Amino acid sequence: MSSEKSLRQLYAEMQEQRSRTMPPEELRINVNQRRLLVETADRSRFVKAGDRLEPFSLPEVDGGRITLDGLLAKGPAVLIFFRFAGCPACNIALPYYQRELFPPLHDLGVALVAISPQVQERLVEIKRRHHLDFSVATDVGNTLAKDLGITYSYDQPSRELALFKGVNMGEVTGTGTWELPMPTVLVVDQDRTVRFVDVSPDWLDRTEAAPVLDAVRALVAETV
Length: 224
Prior knowledge:
With 224 residues, the protein is an alpha/beta fold. The chain has one domain: 3-Layer(aba) Sandwich (Glutaredoxin). The protein contains ten helices and nine strands. The protein has helices at residues 7-21, 24-40, 68-71, 90-100, 102-108, 120-129, 143-147, 156-164, 169-173, 209-223, and strands spanning 57-59, 65-67, 77-81, 111-116, 135-138, 151-153, 179-181, 184-188, 194-199. The strands form three sheets. It has a five-stranded mixed beta sheet. It has a two-stranded antiparallel sheet with strand order 1-2. Strands 6-7 form a two-stranded antiparallel sheet.
């Protein structure tokens, strides 16, 4: 069993530090935005286990394209949706998945790809920073995330605070909008059927590696 900290522990530490260092009004707006997303998310729209994905093709940040058929060519695949390269929570989650998820998936021959709407030339930063061995791809226009029902937009207080600090999310991502995907993990079988899904409206409550690996191992065992 890994001795590394869980995502829950890492985010608890992050929040504890924020409570000591972030201006109270900024912290309040951040907490309220996450609470609002949890309370108002339309879960009926979320992708569900048993849904069948349509084929897709996404640009990978290192060049070339990632296709669903290509990901599934040799077995199941794991898709991780995240917000953008500068997102503090994403810079905790993706290195965690590199440590805890990628190696066992690689050993099982299962593809892993992380997906964000941010444009390639800006998204590549997070792959470089953390030396990620898995693919990172751009969901242009949030097209795939919208099809999966997992997008959201900044609430007004969060948008006003960002603009006050000189941050326009549409410019940061290169999308021109304030729309982002909720952190989501999918396990997809070779028939393009979703076998496991976890959507996190609160971006500080993300999927741990263990349930993903359990789902993948169960799926692989079915084909042996």
